[in-house]
Amino acid sequence: MCLAAELGEIENHIDYYFKNYPKYDIEVGLYILLDGISYYGTEKDWLWVYSYGVKKLKIDPREEFEEKYKELTEKILKS
Fold it and tell me: Is pLDDT above 70 for 6?
């Protein structure tokens, strides 16, 4: 994912993921993707995908994800 971000292609990959994920379960799709990024991606990737889901897909995030977003944002701003 980080390589895709460097190449400016991350949005294309995320668009593809959500276009092929069942619409009735799009919120679950976001959480599965965020969980995978937690293990294999970077914190910036996680923040980008979270923002994409909230802003572009209009997903109302669960409280635990809102808290993680705030924590990561603060951490990155401090570094």
Answer: no
